[in-house]
Amino acid sequence: xxxxxxxxxxxxxxxxxxxxxxxxxxxxxxxxxxxxxxxxxxxxxxxxxxxxxxxxxxxxxxxxxxxxxxxxxxxxxxxxxxxxxxxxxxxxxxxxxxxxxxxxxxxxxxxxxxxxxxxxxxxxxxxxxxxxxxxxxxxxxxxxxxxxxxxxxxxxxxxxxxxxxxxxxxxxxxxxxxxxxxxxxxxxxxxxxxxxxxxxxxxxxxxxxxxxxxxxxxxxxxxxxxxxxxxxxxxxxxxxxxxxxxxxxxxxxxxxxxxxxxxxxxxxxxxxxxxxxxxxxxxxxxxxxxxxxxxxxxxxxxxxxxxxxxxxxxxxxxxxxxxxxxxxxxxxxxxxxxxxxxxxxxxxxxxxxxxxxxxxxxxxxxxxxxxxxxxxxxxxxxxxxxxxxxxxxxxxxxxxxxxxxxxxxxxxxxxxx
Length: 417
Fold this sequence. Notes:
Layout: E1 2-7, H1 10-21, E2 27-32, H2 35-39, H3 52-62, E3 66-69, H4 72-76, H5 80-85, E4 90-91, H6 99-102, H7 104-114, E5 121-124, H8 127-137, E6 141-145, E7 154-157, H9 160-170, E8 176-179, E9 185-194, E10 198-200, E11 205-206, E12 209-211, E13 215-218, E14 223-226, H10 235-253, E15 259-269, E16 272-279, H11 286-293, H12 298-306, E17 323-329, E18 342-344, H13 346-350, E19 355-359, E20 362-364, E21 370-372, E22 376-383, H14 387-400, E23 402-403
Parallel strand pairs: 1-2, 1-3, 3-4
Antiparallel strand pairs: 5-8, 6-7, 6-8, 9-10, 9-15, 11-14, 12-13, 14-17, 15-16, 17-22, 18-21, 18-23, 19-22, 20-21
Helix pairs in contact: 1-11, 7-10, 8-9
């Protein structure tokens, strides 16, 4: 199969590696990809991956059998729309359905209509409106930018002033939601969706804060692990029945069928499971650990989703071996990032048993060495017979990597190892 994976990051690298692991006769192109994807032996042509017309022209020229849209920015920009209109199988929702991630207010309306359990939320459009709503909810305050914010639009704080400042920062860019605080363990659960049916993947937990002990500001994600030994045995079945299927069926009834990856961001509270947010694509870094454990061929489910044929597919199978990812970030992340620094030790890291490295923001210098080009630079993914082994392997590999000023959390998966 001739497959185009759209996007430049670690998520796309993980998808490419899962497709390569099938050892099938696939022709895989990742556009624009990154230097790590290129080092995996995959073509990485330059492409304006958030431009629907540019992507459609590229697909027409190259004749792909399947297009997998990775980033949320591409989906919200409507990259899938002209492709689907031209009859190209696309894994990724069209622009209307992608508002499930692109607008938190839209997602709340869908959840309310579908009877999906979630926290109460009030939309505010200005700083002036926010104060009384914050006082009504009380601390801790939860403030969310309505649109895409690269994982940085959510603030949870005891500080009312900080909550108001967050409203002031994001309100000029669109509405802001103030939400009920939900206390509990967070879970990421992905579903393949074909517009009518869904099939679950394996749950994961990610670490959003920059520092150990969940301290500091939110990031795009500093690590993750899968599976989750502490969730109930029927957890996946419950979420399928109460969250994923009602959401997809509601969108179908509204004339905006959701085709692609439905990411359910959940929290397990004392009163039951609640949805924190939806995303319309694979999450990063959870994708890296979930796909590392996937034993079924990924391409089968991507194509079946795109073609409305999930009902004929078996539930995906996963290895019992746990997987852990530790993200290595540049100095200054998630604030003002220092880039251009040399990254060393990647071969030594990949030589640790059960380990592979996914690239998020790297490039080659004129001598063929690696340099960091962004905030989250790479992720070290490790599998093991148990969590202790997977975690030990991941951190052994991280210790092999050199990045001046680099940072990583030291407590990823500590609670299950």
